[in-house]
Amino acid sequence: MAKLLLQHSFTISFLLIILSFFSTFATIESKHFSRSLSPSSLGLKREKLSHLHFYFHDIVAAKNPTAMRVAQANTTSASSPFGAVVMIDDPLTVDPDINSKPVGKAQGIYALASQSDASLLMAYNFAFMEGKYNGSNLSLLGRNTVFSPVREMPIVGGSGVFRLARGYAEARTHTFDLKTGNTVVEYNVYVFHY
Q1: DSSP state at residue 52
Q2: Local structure of residue 130 (DSSP, 8 states)
Q3: What domains are there in the chain, each with its CATH number?
Q4: GO cellular component terms (predicted)?
Q5: How does pLDDT run across 91-139, given as a tens digit for each residue?
Q6: In the predicted model, is pLDDT for residue 21 greater than 70?
Q7: From the CA atom positions of the chain, what is the Rg in Å?
Q8: Which of 121, 163, 184, 192 yields a CA-CA distance of 20 to 30 A from 156?
């Protein structure tokens, strides 16, 4: 009887080790780093292409500025603004007039990123508050050569209606006040989204 018990004990131990191995392997396999998904499993439908047109008001000199320098390099000066970083909360409107209907805000930063020309690194969100886009955002990240007639910058993502967005923004300076630095920029944004 002891011999039979010893034999079954060995078999049971062996089976427990095998089951433990497969259980560990199954646990490891169930934790996914990545996997392929169908867009419909996330509720995504056919992609749309939208065109948005608005005006961006960068107000640096006023009682309540919407663009404010928050950092600069030790070598930053009026004649060499390289290294200056500006935080923005700029209004977006349907017309060039600041008092026209607001559609959102541009919120983020831009930095003077060139030592040789007026080029900015733009990193901000268009936060919309109008119509079906209310509460949705588009994220822009790119180079803005401010004295070029037309600047193209990538739209790298979004949220809300613009989840998984991609596209580009065209910027054209509408007005620039040499005394104050206040600027109005016309934007045409073309974006694919679901």
Answers
A1: E
A2: S
A3: 45-193 (2.40.480.10)
A4: apoplast
A5: 999 999 999 999 999 999 999 988 888 899 999 999 999 999 999 999 9
A6: no
A7: 28
A8: 184
